[in-house]
Amino acid sequence: MAALATSLCTNGALETLALPGNEVGPGGARQLAQALKSNGALRALDLSGNPIGPPGASCVGMALCFSTALRELRVRGCGAGDTGMGFLGEALWRHAALPHLGRGALRLLDARDNGLSPEAARALADAARGRAGAAPTELLVNCSPSLSPRAAGAGAAAGAPAALRVAA
């Protein structure tokens, strides 16, 4: 992962990096996040199915505040839970407020299958809607299977999958 992160720092051509299910852990997520801070070309990052957990989600979230190119972030099934998604939500909120990003803000965050509580899903949805004047981020998120969609704010009928989609 270190070699990939190092090359990502200087690569100005790579626009999509898909690493689903590659056993990227918190340390690897930290290395990629550091690289994202200086990479101005990467538009899509997929870390789905990697055990980055809350520490890795926090690192990736911090990188959002520096990234001017990233438009899509996929962290589906990364074990981030409420804590990790809380870090990402805070970063998303701050990201929307950065004037230098303009239209370059994150457009898609896929955070499904991270075992979120309804409260965490709502907080993430609020962050995805952005601040006044900022373009909202499309958010794909669901709650733990045992939680009802109505509790998550999805407004779906009882018995429907617990999914929430927030879009502009």
Report on the architecture of this protein:
The structure is a single chain. This protein is an alpha/beta fold. The chain has one domain: Leucine-rich repeat, LRR (right-handed beta-alpha superhelix) (Alpha-Beta Horseshoe), CATH 3.80.10.10. Helix content is 37%, strand content 12%. It has five helices and six strands, in the order H-E-H-E-H-E-H-E-H-E-E. The chain has a six-stranded mixed β-sheet, covered by helices on one side. About 10% of the residues have low confidence.
Task: Reconstruct the topology from this structure.
Elements: H1 2-10, E1 16-18, H2 26-38, E2 44-46, H3 53-64, E3 72-74, H4 81-96, E4 108-110, H5 118-129, E5 138-142, E6 163-166
Parallel strand pairs: 1-2, 2-3, 3-4, 4-5
Antiparallel strand pairs: 5-6
Helix pairs in contact: 1-2, 2-3, 3-4, 4-5
The end-to-end distance, rounded to whole angstroms, is 35 Å
Second-tier CATH architecture: Alpha-Beta Horseshoe
- List low-pLDDT spans: 147-163
- Using only CA atoms, what is the Rg? 15 Å
From the 3D structure, determine the CATH topology: Leucine-rich repeat, LRR (right-handed beta-alpha superhelix)
Structural class: alpha/beta
What distinguishing features does this structure have?
alpha/beta; 168 residues; Leucine-rich repeat, LRR (right-handed beta-alpha superhelix); 6 strands
Summary, kept brief:
With 168 residues, the chain is of the alpha/beta class. It is 37% helix and 12% strand. The protein has a single domain (2-6, 15-157), classed as Alpha-Beta Horseshoe (Leucine-rich repeat, LRR (right-handed beta-alpha superhelix)).
